[in-house]
Design the sequence.
């Protein structure tokens, strides 16, 4: 069952205790990634968190959608749908609503960014030019996942956009700054991964013992700031052997 909340938001049942919100520009059905849609996702997330307490178990925002998981002991589909319809009519398209600006230190080098030379060769640029282009942008946090703290940031300059690796690496180090297509991200923990590594960030992207647990949230803006090796170590960074 699909319900249109307004020109930019559509609601569907996604399970026994879940609803899915789909966001679009001007009522279009196709899901695309734009700053205005990301702003609406951010607005909706904030509104729901402010107006629901025990009823909502979890909110999982993405590029152009949000999964709302609710407590069946507190509310049912029908009543939650009606409350969301009323609440989210407050959401309006504000194309350039600005989130917080978060600066993340980045140690760019051939020892910390094993794919820098390959990206430079592909783009017909120098390694220095690749680094300059990467830190020149302000990136919007469009979504968080596949792991806690893994923020999908967009968009990188098209000149340094790179396809994912054909064969993912089995071990990508914590803090690896990487590019896939026109997205960039920081790996919050050591894990397998197929993104192209260009540097390392010494800042924890997820820590369950701190509040907040992540330095960024959906809607924030991120800017990478180059640091040298000494500063990287001073901020707690570690160099680990990378799989080629």
Sequence:
């Amino acid at each position: 069952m699909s319900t249109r909340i307004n020109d930019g938001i559509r609601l569907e049942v996604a399970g026994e205790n879940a609803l899915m919100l789909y966001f679009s520009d001007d009522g279009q059905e196709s899901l695309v990634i734009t700053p205005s849609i990301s702003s609406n996702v951010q607005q909706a997330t904030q509104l729901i968190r402010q107006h629901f307490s025990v009823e909502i178990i979890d909110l999982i925002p993405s590029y152009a959608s949000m999964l709302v998981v609710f407590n069946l002991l507190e509310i049912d589909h029908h009543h939650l749908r009606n409350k969301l319809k009323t609440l989210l009519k407050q959401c309006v398209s504000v194309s350039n609503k600005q989130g917080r600006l978060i600066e993340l230190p980045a140690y760019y080098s051939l020892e910390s960014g094993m794919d820098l030379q390959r990206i430079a060769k592909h783009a017909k640029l120098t390694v220095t030019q690749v680094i300059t282009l990467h830190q020149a942008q302000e990136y919007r946090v469009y979504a968080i996942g596949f792991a806690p703290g893994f923020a999908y940031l967009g968009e990188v300059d098209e000149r340094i956009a790179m396809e994912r690796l054909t064969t993912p690496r089995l071990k990508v180090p914590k803090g690896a700054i990487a590019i896939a297509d026109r997205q960039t991200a920081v790996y919050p923990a050591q894990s397998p991964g197929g993104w192209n590594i260009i540097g390392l960030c010494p800042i924890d992207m997820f820590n369950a013992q701190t509040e907040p647990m992540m330095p960024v949230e959906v809607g924030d803006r991120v800017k990478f700031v180059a640091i040298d090796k000494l500063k990287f170590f001073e901020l707690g960074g570690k160099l680990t052997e990378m799989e080629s």
